[in-house]
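Secreted protein structure dump, as promised
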Amino acid sequence: MKKLSLICFLSIISLLANAQTKSQAQLFWDNLKALCGKSFEGKMLDSTMVRDFAGKRLVMHVRACDDGTIRVPFFVGDNKSRTWVFTLKNDRITLKHDHRHEDGSEEKQTQYGGTAPNAGFANLQMFPADAQTASVIPSAATNLWWVTLNKEKFSYNLRRIGSGRDINVIFDLTKTVESPGAPWGWKD
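structure tokens r here:
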């Protein structure tokens, strides 16, 4: 009986130690991954950049999750061209923007984004524009994206440093909505 109690005690200590050693990036990742399969409606708080979002239904669908990649299509009305692609590698999260035409082919301006310079926080990750972004969209070389995540809200934000142009979209995580279907280039 003592041996069984000791084994149980050591197992609990091991679980607690593992929980305490998770990095902030891993905690953020786990929280985002917990939303997999769910869709949420959002609203534009402020946008000086994207006029075509005005008056349209905004929905994010945490659609595909595996150990290293989480794909989140972002629907703007009937436009299904945008997918946020998060990857986790070496305790750093990368955010890329996958843009597709209706036939599934890549748009000219796609695969741009950046990698968090550090582990960030469990509820906030920041992504400064990388060299690929500067080559694909030279005016976006000063972009800074950040995503916040807690039990009630997910926010996607963009500020183009020095331009006064920004985007702020907040999604309500307290209620799910029906997914608008597969994004362009995907199959259900």
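DSSP finds three helices and eleven strands in the chain.
lmk if u need the other ones
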